[in-house]
Design brief:
Number of helices: 8
Shape: globular
Number of domains: 1
CATH topology: TIM Barrel
Distance between the termini: 8 Å
CATH architecture: Alpha-Beta Barrel
Structural class: alpha/beta
Number of strands: 11
Strand content: 15-25%
Radius of gyration: 17 Å
Amino acid sequence: MLCDYHMHTRLTDAQGEPRDYAARAVAAGVAEIAFTDHMPFVKRFSDWHMPMAELPRYVGWIEEARREFPQVKILLGMELDYLPGIEGELRDLQARYEWDFFLGSVHHIDGWNFDGPNGAREWAARDVDAAWERYFRLLADAARTGLYDSMAHPDLPKKFGFRPKRDPRPLYEPFLRACAGTGAAIEISTAGLHRPCKEMYPSLEMLKIACPLGVPITFGSDAHLPEHVGRDLDKAVALAREAGYSQFCRFAKRRRSFEPL
């Protein structure tokens, strides 16, 4: 059973509407999809987050796609950025609708959008080791809030190919233990295969630490175009098996269940 739990729409930084992605899911044989557009902030600070006024349209689009494509299960979800002190805003957003699924993510390190369009040039001027350490501290703090169902693209700092000089594995374990403590899954994202790092998020090394800790997994393409739905999910399943996983998570109304790989 193929499930793609990460996709965006034209209300943020992607193209197309939910019906376009649902049609592609049907064509690609993907049985279940979750829309996880970038959350609206009370005080919007980027052009790739949803304007708050568009939130009702987003939910309405997903309801329409459910009616038009009953052969695919469509989840109402959102990708919720973590910033220190944002917990109250996240809880307010979560209370507004009957959501199915929340992805957690960190895209900013102390105000720096480290995976933005100028990322490669900016990384070259940074202390890479320090940036990785700060990112994983923030990611662990996010997981500890208990507000997320799965943590998206967990080793995102490798996107442009900048990796720490030191072994990064000691950075992974505190984050993964935080996930295990709150029940958060981690996402295996195929998007990294199409980025300069040319590697799925997360690495096999992280997954091999996560599996014995009992941290579950979800799958996502991070689709920004309808034709990306389900892209490389077969490779993600193979990576999960190589790391020792035998099952993955599904969600409905934020209640978790498991499916065999």
